[in-house]
Specification:
- The structure is a single chain.
- The chain is mostly helical and 418 residues long.
- It has twelve helices and no strands.
Length: 418
Amino acid sequence: MATPTRVDGRRSAPDAEVVAGPRMPRVRRVVVLICLVTVAALFGAVVRQSWSATSQAAEVVRLEAAGAAMMHPMTTLLTELVTAQSAAVRGSAVDQDSVRSALAQLQAADARYGAVLGTSQRLSDLAAQIEAVFQAGETGRAAYQRYSAVIDLAVDLIRAIGDSSHLVHDPDLDSYYLMDAAIVRLPDAMVSTGRAADLVALAEPGTELTGEDAVRAAVARFNVATDARLVSAGLSTSVNYTERSELSSNIVDRLDAFLTAADAFAPPTMLQEFATAVQAREMAENASVVFTTAQLLAHLLLSELEALLAARAEALAQQQRVIAIATAAGAVLVVVIAWLVVLSNRGRAVDGRTDAGDPRPGRGSTSGELAAAGRSAGDRRGDHGRIVAAVSGSGRDAESGPAASGFAGQGARSIHAR
């Protein structure tokens, strides 16, 4: 049975399905698109969450690096202030230029990081107090008290830098204990040893510390012993948990020097010595060694901390690059799948236009060919009608006479000749 074809060349719906294949059901197509959109949305949510978490971690590392960078001049300034206090207590000339130079370095770092760390106002107050102490020009116990207040402001600024930079909240053990030693324990040890040496200087020559000064000196020694123990334990933890293999070899020498000096300043038998007179001169000498080794170790630990933070920042940047590449690849994949679904549906929706050159009637014909075919069919129907009319007319003429019969015969022969 011939395939039903319309006069204008278009196939009927059954014919289109046979040639082009069955269409994808609309419900199935909608379900596929919905699933594709859902997967794309879930993928986008995961990517957004990952990018947000990575960006937040990178921002924290950036703040920590800023805090570590600012701690170098801050440690230098603290060293100069403790040295200036010792000179003023002894009545010696204070090296104001060194203090101002360290302050200028800190102010330069604050100009770079102060906006994000929120240290500008505190630093301004500290600078004003330093200038006030210089102008007062006091010596002896008055200088000890005035400089102690300024040094306390400097220590408070160190704590503020640690808080605002998130250094004190660092989650990694290696960097946390480097931070703890560099900006908490060692600055405290430096201040304590400086004050202990100054108390010795305030005592009368050839006398031992007694009374309140002896208590203050004992507290300073106890603080140094505690700080040394915590520094040793913390750095051991850092070495055990770090991926930076050179950390141990880099810090071992200065750490040993600090611990040795701390043991001489505050030996394990210190508690027994509290009940006896303090050997002031020997304690002052040991305090000076602790002070020097503590500041050297602090700067080294800050440099190691900066190296760890730089490696962590690079790792986070690499994660962000991977997320960006994965996002781009996922977007391309979603677009390709959607394009394939739409393309397959359009291919199956062809309703009768087949390839040119199909030999079957009405297949692949152009509109001009279809019109010509229609005119030819109309001419054939007209010839058939004239033949039928001629035959009918010949029968009637036969009844009317021979002349009519001959004329009809000639007409019939001429038609057949055609």
